Request: fold
Amino acid sequence: MNLRIKLNLFISLLFSLFSFFFCFSLFFSYLLSLISFYIEYLKNNVKSKF
Reply:
């Protein structure tokens, strides 16, 4: 019984870590795309001004 509880805890911990990393990677990719979009926008503005 004790081993089973530990196993359950371990699996839930792994799952939570995995979900956390998944959300973090999603957020990170979103941030990267936003930054690249902003840089492209700035480049276009600078080109149009000069």
